[in-house]
Amino acid sequence: MAKTAPGELELVRRFVNTADIAEGTDKIGDPAALQEWLLAQELIPHGETVSAADWGRAIAFREAIRALAIANAGHQCVPVDSLRTLNDIAATVMLTVRLDKKGHPRLEPVVSGIDRALGHLLGIVLTAGVEGTWTRLKSCANDECRWVYYDRSKNRSGRWCSMEACGNPINARAYRVRRKTDGKAS
Fold this sequence. Notes:
The chain has 186 residues and is mainly α. The chain is 49% helix and 11% strand. It contains 6 helices and 6 strands. It has helices spanning 9-16, 31-40, 52-72, 80-93, 113-131, 163-181, and strands at 19-20, 25-26, 95-99, 105-109, 137-139, 148-150. The strands form 3 sheets. Strands 1-2 form a two-stranded antiparallel sheet. It has a two-stranded antiparallel sheet with strand order 3-4. Helix 3 (52-72) packs across helix 4 (80-93) and helix 4 crosses helix 5. The longest helix has 21 residues, at 52-72. The model has no long low-confidence stretch (mean pLDDT 87).
């Protein structure tokens, strides 16, 4: 179920997948867990705390990014609420262009706290959009899964986080329904 993304886009994929819909678990299910995850990813410095309001913004941001991944997969359009969330966060994170040690430009937030962490993730999304890799970050077509994966298929037609976990069972179920409907019950 890996299907990792290239470069820093992998961090965005891992962030969205902190919520495992199929398992009903959330690695960042409260402010303390979010703080620990952000520290582990070096998105906030040691000593930085995450408030309940920060946690709420991060969860809303995560689910808005998931909505973009669902739209990338062609399952539905991006909901207005998700766009509003992303635009509100974009307005507060204040991204600027910085050059890294090799002279490559990158977007970095000039704020601190949770806005810095969210800004870093949003900068990755924007950069991936410019590089053409963003549209390959998709959500599984299985509504009970919605795991975010990177579509490495040549024609960008991937639908499932994995054929074994989601694709084959859903395709088999659809086949049985078609057979039953055709009067050829198995």
